[in-house]
Design a protein that fits this description.
- The structure holds two protein chains of two kinds.
- Chain A has 15 helices and 14 strands.
- Chain A has helices at residues 41-45, 53-58, 67-80, 86-112, 127-137, 145-160, 181-209, 231-259, 368-377, 381-394, 404-434, 482-487, 498-503, 515-523, 528-531; strands at 3-7, 17-24, 27-35, 218-219, 222-223, 275-277, 280-282, 291-293, 296-298, 314-317, 356-359, 449-458, 461-470, 473-480.
- The longest helix of chain A has 31 residues, at 404-434.
- By secondary structure, chain B is α/β, with parallel strands linked by helices.
- In chain B, strand 5 (135-136) and strand 6 (139-140) form a beta hairpin.
- Classes of the chains: A alpha+beta, B alpha/beta.
């Protein structure tokens, strides 16, 4: 029996997550992932106006702010049978593209960089050498000795104040930090730059979406922002897009390439086995054929064997979750029959509010790595060139993609691919407007009954919303979200969830300071408020949503 | 004066001119409803205090949208808030430490700054089954709040969840979720909104730092400088309302004309907030400008009281 380590709370994520591992011989031997909060949004939706569902489900998460809004709108549109106009599709894609850019930049710098970058060690850097390093690896327009000296002074003033704020009591000096001081200083400077940039990136959402977080310009049938389809608004969007994409190409990707060589061992740590992507960003009304980020599933790391993914193969397990029962059920047929009272956390039995989704009975990783692998497997040029180029630059084999490093790099590469795709979309919108087509909405009427689903792929992974309407009201609502796929517990067959699997074999230099564990968990960009949105555990309500 | 000079030099080093900075302070001062004579004083608050005021930021049942909103702050920029103005001693979304290190930090910070820190709460507190629905490090939200909040100099509830319970408290409120004031029986300053405009949060904090007290509030705890008037009374589409010019369907000619959204369900007449004036994301837009009705998100219990959202209020 090895040493048990509990990390709770996992910080720099959304929501309340507990990770427990067993360490033996300096490596993780076993792992458990547990969602620790539970709100009940699906039951709150029952009996309400279906048009309100998108605004409710959006509040699952303020980090993935746009994603549930979009997914829910699509599910209701599918249920009421309305086809949105071309302009609405384009605007939604632009907002979604901006969400990918924002999310991924914030994840790398704000949520995960401190796992790899020792900010305190940056004080030892020579600003001049840092400037030379930055010139060598990046095209950032900000740089030079004076700039890095100023950043270093700012960190010094901060550290000397003795008020370390969010940087207090962390893992500085941990042996797993491998960057030289100059790389640490460069990355610390970019951490601060990214904080400012993300506020501008989010402004793209305000241009066509009123505000960020929690946009408010979609309607079942299209978008409401018809008054924003003006040259000045489009120029504003374009300018913000360009500033963001410049940062992605000149700072974000170069930082990954500069940091990765010091952490090549992480190309062999943190991998999983199966990958699922519903795909997203439709470039016409035809789905899934026109999805820019394609739909597919990869089993046993067989990238070339990528297959079309079908939602019928999804089941959810509750054997190890705080619900009664032992059956693996199709989500459309799902039962939520929770145990009573204060849930007992027991890694040998039930230990999480998350259910365990499986595809063809297998756990599947979802998210940027899954999407990039699926696109790569199909040989989609926009992704394949980026992947091959990066592997070549880092002198790593394709197998290194199945890792914490691969997941982190895939997120950056996807940001490039989606960001580049956005420019033609803007031009397509301009072309439509030039032709006098400013149609943004298709009228529709609420049916007495209806069922609908929306399959989406959002920053953190594959997302499905399902709605059933009766008498013009919501009868049932169900969603299966990315972090449930990734962070879910063991299933009936005892198979580990993707994050649990990824942690096996992770080296832990100091069990009291489990930096390495946090690295891999963060690489999945967990979002627990999304993952545990499920139903009232004490109402004993049984939810049945039939197969569509 | 020397400090001030250094401060401006530092700002300029980061590409912010003194003029821009004074503009930030001007916007903020105006939002707070203070006269322009306060602008230099507001600037002083930001000018590198010797000891940065400590903030302990708690996350309960929420979506982190309120933290995200504050991350979009441009008056001042978020890195200034975190590094130069405040001492964010505990904040789970941005802090480097996790697990034991994070918990130790919370305990140490509460002890060190006992009676002196600003406690910002984001998210509602589950009360059913003694709060069993939400835990951090094995403690319920309720236990943590009872431990930390009473030791603060002031409790600021950021967002409608911590202020009034928010979405998880909507009917039938499965977890018995409540806002902080109700769950603990203490007085709080509430900055509601889903999420609120960060400028209203910054304005409240600056008010506290500048005048040594919290701003004047209404009967549901909202600062009057931000929530004193209704959306309707400040709405640029108000004249269409008076002229009986209404949108009755999205995508219609009337929608293109920018007519009043009241008949589409707009809750502006019943909602107190400064959205039409402050707008969001550096003054870029706000829901009515984007052609969408107001959903009343800064009013208590709006998820029940204001729904169905797309039906005209009676």
């Amino acid at each position: 029996m090895g040493t048990r380590i509990i990390v709770d709370p996992i910080t720099r994520i959304e929501g309340h997550l507990r990770i427990e591992v067993e360490v033996e011989g300096g490596k993780v031997k076993d792992a458990w992932s547990s969602g620790q909060m539970f709100r009940g949004i699906e039951i709150i939706l029952k009996g309400r106006d279906p048009r309100d569902a998108p605004l409710f489900t959006q509040r699952s998460c303020g980090v993935c702010t746009y994603t549930h809004y979009l997914a829910s709108i699509r599910a209701v549109e599918n249920a009421v049978g309305v086809q949105i106009p071309d302009n609405a599709r384009i605007i939604r894609n632009l907002l979604h593209g901006a969400q990918f850019q924002h999310d991924h930049i914030v994840h790398f710098y704000g949520l995960s960089a401190l796992d790899w970058v020792d900010v305190v060690n940056a004080l030892k850097a020579d600003p001049q050498k840092t400037a030379a390093l930055a010139d060598n690896v990046s095209n950032d327009f900000k740089g030079g000795t004076v700039y890095f000296k100023e950043v270093q002074q700012r960190i010094k003033t901060f550290v000397d104040s003795g008020q370390l704020g969010p940087f207090a009591n962390a893992y500085w000096g941990h042996p797993a930090y491998k960057l030289p001081p100059e790389a640490n200083l460069m990355a610390a400077a970019h951490y601060i730059e990214a904080l400012r940039l993300q506020a501008k990136t989010a402004r793209m959402h305000a241009v066509f979406g009123a505000k960020n977080p929690h946009l408010q310009s979609l309607a079942v049938g299209g978008v409401t922002c018809v008054n924003d389809l003006t040259p000045d608004r489009i120029a504003e969007f374009l300018y913000l897009w360009k500033e963001t994409q410049d940062f992605v190409k000149n700072v974000y990707v170069p930082d990954i390439l500069a940091v990765a060589p010091f952490y090549k061992d992480w190309g062999g740590i943190g991998g999983t086995t199966n990958f699922l992507a519903w795909g997203d960003l439709p470039e016409s009304a035809k789905e899934p054929e026109s999805l820019f980020s394609p739909r597919g599933v990869i089993m046993n790391r067989d990238i070339k064997g990528v297959k079309m993914a079908v939602p019928d193969k999804v089941t959810e397990h509750v054997t190890r979750s705080w619900y009664k029962g032992n059956d693996a059920r199709h989500p459309y047929n799902g039962e939520t029959n929770p145990i009573e009272g204060d849930p007992k956390y027991d890694t040998a039995d039930k230990y999480s509010w998350l259910k365990a989704p499986r595809y063809d009975d297998q756990p599947c990783e979802v998210g940027p790595l899954a999407r990039v692998l699926v696109a790569y497997g199909y040989g989609k040029k926009e992704y394949a060139d980026l992947v091959n180029g990066t592997l070549q630059k880092l002198n790593l084999p394709a197998t290194a993609l199945f890792s914490t490093l691969g997941r982190t790099a895939a997120r950056a590469l996807e940001t490039v691919a989606i960001g580049d795709a956005m420019e033609p979309w803007i031009m397509e919108l301009v072309g439509n407007l030039k032709k006098g087509n400013n149609k943004t909405y298709t009228p529709w009427t609420m049916p007495k009954t209806g069922k609908g689903c929306g399959l989406n792929d959002v920053a953190r992974g594959s997302l499905g919303h399902w709605v059933e309407i009766e008498d013009g009201k919501i009868k049932n609502y169900q969603y299966v979200v990315p972090s449930t796929w990734n962070l879910g517990p063991r299933c009936k067959a005892g198979k580990l969830g993707p994050v649990e699997e990824s942690l096996i074999g992770t080296p832990v230099a100091d069990p009291k300071n489990p930096l390495e564990i946090i690295r891999t968990v963060h690489s999945f960009d967990p979002c627990i408020a999304c993952a545990v949105h499920v139903i009232d555990p004490h109402s004993n309500e049984v939810y049945k949503v039939r197969v569509l | 004066m020397k400090e001030e000079k250094e401060f401006y030099e530092r700002l300029e080093g980061k590409g912010i001119s003194r003029r821009d900075f004074m503009k930030f302070c001007g916007v903020l001062t105006a939002t707070m409803g203070l006269s322009s004579s306060f602008i230099p004083k507001v600037a002083e608050v930001f000018a590198a205090p010797t000891q940065r005021p400590p903030v302990i930021w708690l996350h309960f049942a929420e979506c982190t949208g309120c933290s995200e909103a504050v991350l979009r702050s441009m008056y001042p920029w978020i890195d200034e808030l975190v590094i130069n103005i405040l001492d964010i001693a505990y904040h789970e979304t941005i802090m480097a430490a996790s697990g034991t290190q994070a918990e130790d930090l919370l305990h140490a910070s509460v002890k060190k700054y006992d009676g002196k820190f600003i406690c910002v709460v984001e998210g509602a507190i589950a009360t059913k089954y003694n709060g069993a629905y939400g835990k951090i490090g094995g403690r319920t939200f309720l236990e943590i709040a009872k431990d930390v909040c009473p030791k603060a100099a002031a409790v600021i509830c950021l967002g409608s969840c911590s202020a009034y319970g928010g979405i998880q408290a909507a009917n039938p409120n499965p977890g018995g979720y409540k806002g902080v004031s109700e769950a603990l029986g203490i007085k709080t300053v509430n900055i509601p909104g889903c999420p609120p405009n960060p400028i209203n949060f910054v304005g409240t904090v600056v008010n506290y730092l500048l005048l040594g007290k919290l701003p004047a509030i209404d009967d549901v705890g909202r600062p009057l400088f931000a929530y004193g008037k209704t959306i309707h009374d400040q709405c640029p589409r108000r004249s269409h309302y008076e002229n009986n010019e209404f949108v009755t369907e999205f995508g219609s000619k009337e929608a293109e004309m920018g007519y009043c959204l009241y008949k589409m369900g707009c809750k502006g007449p019943d909602t107190h907030n400064n959205c039409p004036v402050a707008k969001f994301n550096d003054g870029t837009s706000w829901p009515v400008e984007a052609g969408h009705p107001c959903i009343g998100c800064s009013e208590p219990n709006f998820w029940d009281k204001m729904t169905p959202f797309f039906v005209e209020s009676k």
